[in-house]
């Protein structure tokens, strides 16, 4: 885990993501995104992604939506394969690489700055 700025957090996962640790990842993200507005979930070093990995990513997605956290997933081949099966419509924010993901988050932050509450 690395805080890149006051509002941007990066979490990297190495190894396997499965039933043994998927729930822990979801809770870890939930716990550490409290003050962040943006999350980079770096799964490039994940060598195996079981179905529980998808459940964890879905949980993270719901948490981020409820907490108004913009986020991206940078995935390894196993993560991409899992998402191609479990998320064929591309609802989860999988990006091709870090530069394109950072660009997406930067554009999202600019949009939030221009939106002001009515009243």
Automatic annotation (TrEMBL):
Gene3D superfamilies with a match to the protein in the record: STAS domain (3.30.750.24)
Highest taxon of source: Bacteria
InterPro entries with a match to the protein in the record: STAS_dom, STAS_dom_sf
CDD domains documented for this protein: STAS_anti-anti-sigma_factors
A Pfam match: STAS
Domain spans labelled STAS: 10-92
Protein name: STAS domain-containing protein
Lineage: Bacteria, Bacillati, Actinomycetota, Actinomycetes, Mycobacteriales
